Amino acid sequence: MKYAVLCYHSENVVCAWSAEHDAEIMAKIAVVEERWSKAKKLGPVARLMPTTAATTLRKDNEPPVVLDGPFAETKEQLLGFFVVDCSGLEEALAFAKELADVNPGGAYEVRPIGYFFDWSAGT
Amino acid sequence: MTDLGWLDAAVTGARPQVMAALLRYFRDLDRAEEAFQEASLKALKSWPQNGPPRDPAAWLIMVGRNVAIDALRRERKSEALPDEHAISDLDDAESALADRLDDAHYRDDILRLLFICCHPDLPATQQIALALRVVSGLTVPEIARAFLVSEAAMEQRITRAKRRVGEAEVPFETPGAVERSQRLGAVAAMVYLIFNEGYSASGGDAHVRLPLCEEAIRLARLLLKLFQSEPEILGLTALLLLQHARSAARLDADGAIVLLEDQDRNLWNKGMIAEGTALIDKAMRHRRPGPYQVQAAIAALHATAEVWDATDWGQIDLLYSTLEQLQPSPVVTLNRAVAVSKVRGAEAALAMIEPLAPKLSGYFHFFGLKGALLSQLGRAPEAREAFGRAIALARTAQEAAHIRLHLDKLGDEGRAGAKTIGSKSKVT
Question: pTM for this one?
Fold first, then answer.
């Protein structure tokens, strides 16, 4: 069984970390990643940019509405995610709109990824 | 120390929201600050034992408010006639606390807290100092160091600013749409001032000033969280990130300025560049250009060029012409001339900056660029004269040293023959 581990924390707090503290935490995480990667159990990992960089495509309207900011409703739950390589926000939104066409209702949050590494890509 | 890093970050991260709420209750900066201070001390004792609260801001607001109310009650008791009315007012405030915490007011609370700091009666330096003290929570010695003044002088500056602000009586009602957007504009300008205070090389050691840039970015992010769809706030945050991304490459080992074209682009912070670019992407969708967005777009073109020679000068020229319309200023035209010199040559650029001479006769970069353009055109004696003026106007030893380098090259090349040197952008 594959599992997605989703990371939640207060952005106010994480953004207040000093660069040194941030680097220290990331280094400690990297050690854990190495360990799980050596056991061939780890796939892609990503650190998302702050929610201020997010855009949300609400697809319960027709046509869908693009809103600035993260998805922030509590009556819906996170059900999955895609990783897509685009030239910019417009293209990423075009991808989300294609998905919305075939799967209306709810929303897609489009958030740039700050750091990405696929441990399972193997070399 | 590291073990308590999380606590520091939690308190610092919550500070603007907590201060804003406490100011709403007590309508007095000093009392709000004391309450915050007390609440932080209690957090320092309680959180390591009991673990961090789920919502640190709510915890600090609650505790800070209670501490301050206790203090108020004690003061009242020591007075001859206790002011029952004031105490019952505070009880009312208590019942409204739950509403206040549910974010309904907190956007305007934080905006007010920031807006108070940029009251038009305050000179820019006082605005910045006050915001850094009150909103960011930097200590007086930290701020004094960044401004290269004594602690006593900074203490006095902040006290004076607080008194002015107290007298000014910024209204506490929820602002209307126009009022809100005016406040937002003033606050954005102040955040930009803070950044520039850290970024500009107008004297001082870069290392002590960098924290100002980081604070400005934090404040811009805070504003952006409150106003997610404001293109100019997206633009401002992007601009600060893109400029700050270059900070590791801006000074060499001796502290001398390294110009954009000579910077080691591997030292640029790619994460900040990516985030800044993503924010401009978002802003552009609104089709409501403004000065911060345009400046950010220019910074993004520089930041995403792999090498100096790959810079998209045509696009930069266009963006500067937009900026000239949005925010006409001789300095903008001067910057545009750098792009023009790349696209249409030194002659065209020189023609563009010559009319600026009366307005920029005291501006270092004007003569720096003029000298560079003249030397490109092979007009060495005039170039030397312009460089001489630039050196006289340099504000730092590094600026002067850089122009001397130009002069040296001019000498060499005068002897060597027709070779010319590239014009240097003021962008660093």
Answer: 0.85
